Please model this.
Amino acid sequence: MRLIIVRHGDPDYAKDSLTEKGWKEAELLSDRLSMLDVTAFYCSPLGRAKDTASFTLKKMNRQAEELDWLQEFRGKIRKGLKISGCWDRLPTEWVNNRDYYDYDKWYKTKLMKSHNVHKEYKKVCDGIDELLSKHGYEHTGGYYKVTNSNHDTIVLFCHFGVECVILSHIFSCSPMVLWHNFVALPTSVTTLITEEREEGIAVFRCQQFGDISHLYAGGEEPAFAARFCECYADEDRH
Model:
């Protein structure tokens, strides 16, 4: 089975939609995805993800099932009276604590226990487990029990934060590394494919992460969204 995770196009967060550039990116993405034999589409309920999906769905005369857990990851931390997102932390807040790199310990750290991180993380994990089970792959510890071996292709239109949560669960690794050391730019495509080297047992392997070749093919420069300043003196966001 092939699992394709797509991040939405360049976002207009104020309108929960896309910028003019984002609409161009979504159209180029549709040229790529519409060439695939897709079994099922799933989408975040947020506008920027649905708008990104709209070109592909219209071109293929298809519909996507909306899944609440595919919306941007809602895990928050509390520092004093301030509540903020858990997946955009400065390096000095986490890199020197090795527990953040551990799949079983990262959410037990003081900062991550301060609000609702584990509760929201579990929602996404349960959601992707239910979806993959529906398509024939049942999560069993570090691998997947195959209940219906197949060549299905399923596509998820979602967001960077939740994409990293999905990958962390599938690969049994801490999402902190994915959130902070990887970046999936707007309309990027991440592709996982199952391997069944032992009968009844599957693992997912990543063939592509954050691929934006469709943008280059269409002469469109990638957006900066999801990145931060390359050098401290730069005027890009910190």
Summary: Residues 117-134 form the longest helix (18 residues). The longest strand covers residues 201-211. The radius of gyration is 18 Å. The CA atoms of residues 146 and 185 lie 32 Å apart.
